[in-house]
Task: structure prediction
Amino acid sequence: MKYLLFALTLSTSFIRAQDTPADPQAEAALRSAEQAITDKVPEVAAQKLNAFLASSAALDPVLRDRAEADLTKATLDSGDAAGALSRLDFPANDTERFEKAEALSALGRWDDAEPLYSQVASDGPSPLLVPATLGQAEALHALNRAPEAISLLASLESRHSSTLVRLRLAEMYIENQQLDAARKLVARSKPATLIETRWRLYVEGRLFLAEDQPAPALEDFQDLLKDPRGLTAALQAGATIGLTEARIILNGLEVADNEMESFISHYPDSPYLEEMFRRLDAIYAQEENPSHTELDRWASKPPPRRAALAVYYEARSFQRQARLDKAIEKYTEFTDRYPRHPLAFEAWMQLGQVYLTTGRVSIASFEGAMRSSSTPAERARAEIAAGNAHFALNDFLVAAELFRDAAQRSSAYWAQATYNSALAWLHVGNYDKFLEDYSSLGAAQRRDLLLEEGLLQAQKGDSRAAATLQSFINDSPDNPRVPDARLALAELGFAAGNTDSASELLKTAYDSSPSPQSREQADYLAIFIADSAPHRSDDNILKLGLQFLDTYPVSPLRAQVRMKLGQVYFRNEDYANAQTQFETLVQEDPSGPLTDQALILAGQSSIKSMNPTGVQHALDLYDRVAKGAGPLKLYARQEEALVEFNRGHNKEAVIIYDDILNSNPDTQLRLAALCGKADCLTAPESDPSPSPSPAPGASPSPAPDPYTAAIALYDQVAADPDAAGHWRDEALYKKARCLNKQGLTDKALDSLYDIINARSPASGQQPDFLWLEKAGFEAASMLEARAQWPGAISIMEKVARIGGPRGPEAQKHADQLRLEHFIWD
Result:
């Protein structure tokens, strides 16, 4: 682990100029402040030193310089590393350079601290040699240059018999699994001070842990923590972490997290508080149901440093548990309350990512990350994330600009940003810009861009897509994204209606170990291929769909899968499960593109489930759609009209149909509303209202003929130039029935004959068998009632020749009429 040693090294006696000042009273005041530093109350020392420096503008220069140096040390000792750093812009000697390195280390700026430590250590023998070398080793260690750190300390240990150096070197050996070397160093360590004695006990505990001996390690760490003498902040934190690791092995995670929680509760001002929160968060990440009780408590009370960390790590915990709305709430709270916190950048970034996981795009989150970035690399990372968000919204030009800025800002992110920029220009269709970025990338990225081009072509229905995708597979057979190309080819085959080919390509994609994202898409496609198979198995479709929902709890494809499951249940007349799928879709995606359709289908399922409250529940669902602004609102009104019609409430249904017709519906809905209204006019009312009595002496008004009104509506449908054949046939058939009820049999037969003749083989039009066969049998029945046997036979044989489902029945009936009435010509 990476522990700072500045808590120890700052105890080193610094060599300062001790020229005798001319003012004994000022000298006494300064010594009082310096005594506070020695007594380890740097806050008091800083107060006294500030008052001393402000007491007189005519202070002796020697005393002023000494007081300024003391104030820097007091500021650093108090934990205000940033304040100390602001006083050390231009260090004038090794002491100030060392102090500046210590301040930089405390702020985690190891790359800036390391050269300062190196300069102090290389300036020759001095009291700062050992602490500066230790500091340099810590910086190298923190920069993941552990071999250099070990080499530096090993060299120092060979020249200086420092117990502190040996113990720190032993700790690094333990981390590097050089346990024999560590054990020898511990054995050679001869502690001369209480701090060194306590440090040795700590390193022995680490060694026991590394040797899989958690019980003696636990004992060492407990001995350290129960006796606070000689326990520095670094040792206290290190022993708590060691104790926690031993507890995990011996007692489990739930017991271990208590140790961390106790430390954070009792030492909220520890310089290692951030490290302890990171460790506690790592434990919570391994627990099945971590409690947020302590995080909630810390977040709601001072000090603010602990409260901020509690809010941030509670957001992380909610994010891991996929409680995404709570994660958004906590990240938002953090960025609102602590906009300048060192973790603000990461909080903004994670907030944006959580929004993306929920299927929403929050540009503002990534813009917040850009504002909070403190390094060019962070800024570039935020710009790439913001570019990806704009890309997801199809703002490709804005995305390309952000990617370009990121590429120019950070060499570490140049390749990723340039690749994304090329992809954005590809979507824009600017091939000059695309080729400019493409040419600057490596071969592997260029091959990936070839795949992206093929995927984009497939998305746009470009006929070149299959060739581009196949070229990628041929040129890069070992590329890990080959499954993506095969999956895209399978989707192209499925879209073209080639189910067998799509199924084979999908199998090949599975066999080539697709990425998690590709596997999700493959599992999704498998459901729809199974549904389109010539000999489909609904049980298999349901199995695949339910497995998908279990496997991908936050997939953006869940709504489509639930819709398919609902449809399969519906066609199998399992209306209860169909309704469950449709209504769950609405709950999971309340503002999605399938929501209104799902509500309407849930209503239809509710009606068919024969539940006593099913009809009213369906009406409630339809009303939700009708009151919205979606494209299906008038279709929901149509469903309401159908419900009222089936309940015998024809007047209410007519009112709804009039409302639809007055709302400029599309052609299909207009034709359906005209037919539906006509059906209502001629159907019996379940609860007819009594006609009002005429006024005394007045003649009753004649009731309008409902059949005449219905016929006029059917004529509108039949004469509509935009009406498909089945609408014309339905209208003519229903018109014929009205004419027949009016006693106008000849006109009724004429209307029925028009249906049969218009869809005969000679017409060249595809017949709609439902209405054609109904018309044929109805016309034959009317002719038989008149004993017009040849006409009835002719109609039946015409229906038989058309070849519909009832064709054999029509032919059999024609043959029967010929036999019964001796008609053979």
